[in-house]
Amino acid sequence: MGERRVAMVTGATRGIGKEIALELAQNGLDIAINYRSMQEGMEDLKKEIEAYGVRCEFVGADVANFEQCENMVKETVEKFGKIDILVNNAGITKDGLIMRMKKEDFEAVIDINLIGTFNVTRNVIPYMIKQKSGRIINVSSVVGVAGNAGQTNYSASKAGIIGFTKSLAKEVASRNILVNAIAPGFIDTDMTKVLSDNVKEGINAQIPLRRMGNPKEVAKVVKFLASEDSSYITGQVINIDGGMVM
Ligand code: NAP
């Protein structure tokens, strides 16, 4: 292979994003790690990635802020020369039943999860169009496919990502840019650590494989969607959920 491909992963300081960054690095890609806030262990993550013989740089931006995303993408292209793969992973939850949900909590989730996906993609697309190639992988959720009580904001944002993915896939296919979404089920990260053991047991009972997934199991699918092996797949939503939604 000639020059290395470059992947930008948003929200990659922990959880699923971090595992995606490690997995892509292990497969020989240079990595731009987007972060919103500096975290303990970030330098260790950089060292771990560089140990695979690839380059790793941190690029800061709150994905909900368009200007910050514009600057982040410029900075990444200045540092690496290009972006081949974009993984829109940054996301939050602010759960609550509709009767108690504050407008701010609805907006915050849409702003980060859905508009954040637009903000980064909108700034990366011109470079991909120019280089006539690219891969975009958006992190949705099974909740965006099937809904979940207490998550109207989150599932609206994740369903929005699916519509965004399909429309963009149609728009840029002729430019050799493939756009897909993944829909993880319940994955063991900080996001789900907040759930009580009772709730977790209830969830596991609804999963045919009877367990939560781990971030590595998500990262492996992203690796596939970023690779040549998925060259004829675009506009798809791939569930990674132990059979929870079928
Ligand atoms: P997590 O452990 O809570 O990590 C979320 C990451 O997103 C953190 O690095 C966080 O950075 C970053 N982030 C949040 N808001 C951001 C912003 N405005 N700008 C930039 N970065 C931001 O969550 P996770 O479980 O790994 O989730 C990753 C993605 O998978 C999310 O999109 C989530 O919705 C989706 N997902 C998760 C599950 C699950 O069961 N865990 C299931 C389906 C889908 P900070 O540390 O600065 O907050």
Describe the structure.
This protein has helices at 15-26, 42-50, 66-80, 103-131, 142-146, 152-172, 190-193, 197-205, 215-226; strands spanning 6-9, 30-35, 56-60, 85-88, 134-139, 177-184, 237-240. With 246 residues, the protein is an alpha/beta fold. Helix 1 runs parallel beside helix 2 (42-50). The radius of gyration is 17 Å and the shape is globular. The mean pLDDT is 97. It binds NADP nicotinamide-adenine-dinucleotide phosphate.
Summed up:
This protein is an alpha/beta fold and 246 residues long. Helices cover 47% and strands 15% of the residues.
* Global structural class: alpha/beta
Chain-averaged pLDDT: 97
Number of helices: 9
Low-confidence stretches: none
Distance between the termini: 38 Å
Topology:
Elements: E1 6-9, H1 15-26, E2 30-35, H2 42-50, E3 56-60, H3 66-80, E4 85-88, H4 103-131, E5 134-139, H5 142-146, H6 152-172, E6 177-184, H7 190-193, H8 197-205, H9 215-226, E7 237-240
Parallel strand pairs: 1-2, 1-4, 2-3, 4-5, 5-6, 6-7
Helix pairs in contact: 1-2, 1-9, 3-4, 4-6
Residues 10-11, 13-17, 34, 36-37, 39, 62-64, 89-92, 112, 116, 139, 141, 184, 186-187, 189-192 line the site of NADP nicotinamide-adenine-dinucleotide phosphate.
